[in-house]
Amino acid sequence: RSSWLLVAPLLTPPVPVITAPPCSLCPEGAHRFQWIRNLVPEFGISSSHVKVLSSPAEFYELLKVQIRTAKRRVVMASLYLGTGLLEQELVDCLGETLEKSLQARGSSDLRVSILLDYTRGSRGRKNSRTMLVPLLQRFPEQVRVSLFHTPNLRGLLRLLMPERFNETIGLQHIKVYLFDDNVILSGANLSDLYFTNRQDRYVLLQDSPEIADFFTELVDAIGDVSLQLQRDDTVRMMEGMVHPYRGDKVAYCETANRRVMEVINSARTRQELLHAQTFHSSRPGSSLSSQPSSPGGLKPEPDTWVYPLIQMKPFGIQIDEMVTETLLTEAERDARIYLTTGYFNLTQAYMDLVLGTRAEYRILLASPEVNGFFGAKGVAGAIPAAYVHIERQFYSELCCLRQQERVRLQEYSRAGWTFHAKGLWLYLAGSDLPCLTLVGSPNFGYRSVHRDLEAQVAIVTENPALQQQLHQ
Asked: Is 362 exposed, middle or buried (CB count within 10 Å of its CB: 0-12, 13-18, 19+)?
């Protein structure tokens, strides 16, 4: 991600923390986090459907396998698509799968929807758009490419700001890769570095139709308020939609808020209804039958819960921020929180909570040598040093408060690699394994909270095997 605002002073006041009410029915263990479903849909699944990937190569191979086996839908949201050979192979996989789908049925049931950022995806003569135009030309009825343009980059600012820096005003930063009913949540972009030697996080949710439906609808909603790539590499808005930088900004943001909140609220309603039906059908003597979806005939009881957390401050949506601040606030004494980010630029509100709460913290950061901007030319080359400066300031404050034992900083260093992983792990007091993790696109920094479109999931589990996967 580009420079300037990545290291901008954090001058905004902290957002008031929304304190989670204790769950009176189930206050202990993993279920203590059920308050999150007051904000977003709750998806109960079996832990056997969750797989944690560990390497960029594994992530890349899984993307290709999932594309080749997709029958109904491929939905991919990323900051950008790179222009190298590995990225071209992904595009070729999409083309081959679409072609096979057409040949098998005469008319394809497979739909491909790709959401990228406009500014990042349009940079240079060869870019994300030129990579995808051939797909649009070959499969105009099956492929949709949406390019989100922040409403904050407009007027003179848009005309005068250099191309290299215009993305600092705001981005589409969500990373979701979805194939039929399988969903990959990650912080990785569709670029060769993220397929080879740029360490990130990746979680696969298998056979999870409700979660896949939610993220399909979310990407569709953002796509509807985005510029649509055409077969001649031009862009245009959907009929009747407010333009993001030519139209009225307030009207555009209100429309976007309405579309995204419709997705969140309708999914919440569906899941609450499903939860009520499942509860009643599991009661003795109930006439409602369970859906056979396991070898034993009955759907297994969920031991893992997934909560999608959305952050789109330009549209007035700050669910991820509220949940993250509440988790940091409510963490009890002797609980442990592991936090990692590729860019150590926590908001002032998050820093204050780390310094002022009782839990133990282990914060993993990129060392200067594995920062993605290390060795870059111009302004960008100074970014690793700027992060070191922020880190030293934070550590000095820890020492002044005598908190350096409770809050420990560590740097990730690996020869030949860069570090882009981000997330949070929560270990309850007395436990050696995490019961909750956050995984997705946010970096916990100024831009993630205030400027960009972000999404991650909170995964809560009481299954020891999955907890062990998350711990590793």
From this structure: middle
| Catalytic residue check, 180 | yes
Q: What's the Cα-to-Cα distance from 356 to each of 123, 206, 331, 401, rounded to whole Å?
A: 42, 39, 11, 10
Q: What is the pTM of this model?
A: 0.89
* Catalytic site residue from 180, 181, 233, 352: 180
Query: Which residue in 321, 92, 75, 73 sits closest to 176, CA to CA?
Result: 75
DSSP string, 426-450: EE-TT-SS-SEEEEES--SBHHHHH
CB 37 within 8 A of CB 307: yes
- Average of pLDDT values for 188-211? 98
Cβ burial, residue 24 (10 Å; 0-12/13-18/19+) = exposed
> What's the full length of the chain, in residues?
472
What average pLDDT does the segment 319-339 reach? 95
DSSP state of 294: S
Q: Fill in the DSSP letter of residue 39.
A: T
Are 43 and 208 in contact by the 8 Å Cβ rule? The answer is yes
pLDDT at 87 over 90: yes
| Tens of pLDDT, residues 430-469 | 999 999 999 999 999 999 999 999 999 999 999 999 999 9
Distance (Å, whole) CA 267 – CA 264: 5
Whole-number Å distance between alpha carbons of 435 and 101: 41
User: What sign does the dihedral 280-282-287-291 (CA atoms) show?
Assistant: positive
What sign for the dihedral angle of Cα 246, 251, 257, 258? negative
Average pLDDT over residues 367-380: 56
Taking the C-alpha atoms of residue 33 and residue 43, their distance in angstroms, rounded to an integer, is: 13
Tokens of 330: 């409510």
Q: Which domains does the chain have, with CATH numbers?
A: 42-271 (3.30.870.10), 305-471 (3.30.870.10)
Which residues of 170-265 form beta strands (DSSP E)? 176-179, 182-186, 198-199, 202-205, 227-229, 235-236
Q: Are 42 and 307 in contact (CB under 8 A)?
A: yes
Q: Please pick, among 49, 117, 149, 173, the residue that the annotation labels catalytic.
A: 173
Q: Is 175 a catalytic residue?
A: yes
In the prediction, which pLDDT does 286 show? 44
User: CA nearest 212: which of 62, 75, 66?
Assistant: 75
In 118-251, which ranges are E strands? Answer: 143-148, 176-179, 182-186, 198-199, 202-205, 227-229, 235-236
Catalytic residue among 49, 149, 175, 420: 175
